[in-house]
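Researcher: Please predict.
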Amino acid sequence: MKKALEVLLIGGMMLFLGACARLGVKVDFESVNLQNRADSVCKMIVESLEIGDSKAIGDLFSKEAIKEASDLNDGISENLELYKDKSFTYECLGNSIKEHYNDFDKECKITGKYLLSDQEGNQYLLWFVDWYMYDKNPDGVGISLIIITDYTAHERNLKLEEILGYDKLGIYWSDWDEACGS
C-alpha cells in the first residue's frame, strides 16, 4: 500500500510538472535566488545605517570600489549622519539583473531599487549596484555604488538622473554635486 502511494505521488508530480511545461509555466529558481540576494543586500545596507556601523557598510563594497573611490569614507560618514537614529521599512520597487559574457568571462550584476520609509513618514530611494559575479576581475565582486536620495526628487526624475550620470564608485554624498557642478 505504501509503495502504491509513493508511485501515485511521484506520478502525480510528473503529470503536474508536465502540464506546467506544456502550458508554458516556468519556475525560475535563479531569479528567485537573485531577488533574495537583492533583498539581503538592501537589508544589510538598511541595518548598517540604522545602527550607524561604518565598517559594516564599508565591508559591503567590492575591493575595486574601495580602491577606486577616494571619498568612500566621507560618503559613508555623511550618510550615517543623515540617517542615524532612524528606523526604516523597505519595499522593492524593481530590480534588474544583467548577465554578460565578455569573451568567456561572465559578468553579472543586480541593480536594486528600494523605497525606504522612516518612522516619521519620510521616504527615500535606495539604489545600488551589486556585482555578484565578475570572472575577469574578482576584486569587482560586491557593491560598487549606493545612492540614497529623497524619494520626492526621484518621483520628479530630477536628482537621480544627475547622480546616475556621475560615473563614480562608492556611496553618493553632497560633494558629488559640487564636483559635477550641480
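Model: Residues 20 and 27 are 9 Å apart (CA to CA).
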